[in-house]
Amino acid sequence: MTKAIEAHGLTKRFGKTQALAGIDLEVDEGRVLGVLGPNGAGKTTAVRILATLLRPDEGTARVAGHDVVREPKEVRRAIGLTGQYASVDEDLTGLQNLVMIGRLLGLDRRAARARADELLTEFDLVDAGGRTSKTYSGGMRRRLDLAASLIGRPSVVYLDEPTTGLDPAKRDDVWDMVRVLVKQGTTVLLTTQYLEEADALAEEITVIDHGRVIAHDTPQGLKRQVGGQTLEVRVAHPADLATAQQVLARVGTREPEVIGGDLVSVPVSGDAVLPATVQALASEGVPVVEFSLRLPSLDEVFYSLTGQRGQGGASGPASGSASAGSASTSSLESASSNEGEAV
């Protein structure tokens, strides 16, 4: 498949801080790459380089076939960027925000209005289009921000912590929008610390820690890397908990763990333990209300790789919201000279 994003050996230092220490990233056209990492891992710095907002100290990167250093204008025309926090103009209506960005991208007034109307419909904001955006809820502002990044019909979209601060229902709305983008052929690079977000959206995941890539695979592949499966048994009666522990201890690869007073969990090797465990529990007269064999969760993978639990925290905005070729070349270039941003 054709690569929409190719980055090799990217390094970036801010004073004594090594934000990136030679990372590689690749994303096929029309796919979603999830980039995971704890705060300060380097996710946002990588996005800023790929968006031409920062120059790498070393390494190369191409986006939509264009070099991010030698061909920044061509890259900007091809990308859309939405950061952690919606950056729409609060004193403008939703419609005015979108029309303004369209005009900055070089669309004439009629074309800018037509594109704005199209996106307001697509993002279910038609009824709110005439209201100032400061009256919008957090989820509505996020939808408007994402719509703004799509004014120029970008082929590549960067979503840097796009659901930070949203409640689960609003997060699901953003996820649905991302799925629609991918169906339309858009390539998405998603940075996140919500493990379920990466699991739900990304075909492949790259894990970054301390500026280095420490793992890359599909979600299922990463789960298998941690090793083994987990057998979980929930007993019907707490009095049978000790007996269930003894049964699972015979099939597990380490001592069982009791969770919540009625669930016994133990790592196992292979599916063959299932019939033996079912038979042993039955012979001991232990009634079971839940019986499952699963791969490790993505949160367990993340913890195994980085030593930190996945969380909903943020690592600093990549920028507010930049649409394809957004705002003006000079504003992007001035932003790239500010090196005090979070990494």
Count of strand segments: 15
Give me the number of helical elements: 12
Principal-axis shape: elongated
CATH superfamily of the largest domain: P-loop containing nucleotide triphosphate hydrolases
What string gives the helices and strands in order? EEEHEEHEHHHEHEHEEHEHEEHEHEH
CATH fold descriptor of the largest domain: Rossmann fold
Number of domains: 2
At the first level of CATH, the class of the largest domain is Alpha Beta
Helix content: 25-40%
Question: What CATH architecture label of the largest domain applies?
Answer: 3-Layer(aba) Sandwich
Structural class: alpha/beta
C-alpha end-to-end distance:
31 Å
Mean model confidence by pLDDT = 85
Percent of sequence in beta strands: 25-35%
With strands numbered from the N-terminus, the spatial order across the biggest sheet is 10-9-3-8-7-6-15
- Rg calc: 24 Å
Please mark out the parts with pLDDT under 50 across 5 or more consecutive residues, or reply none.
Answer: 312-342
Keywords: Antibiotic resistance, ATP-binding, Cell membrane, Membrane, Nucleotide-binding, Translocase, Transport
Membrane topology: Peripheral membrane protein
InterPro entries: AAA+_ATPase, ABC_transporter-like_ATP-bd, ABC_transporter-like_CS, ABC_transporter_ATP-binding, DrrA, DrrA1/2-like_C, P-loop_NTPase
Region (Disordered): 308-343
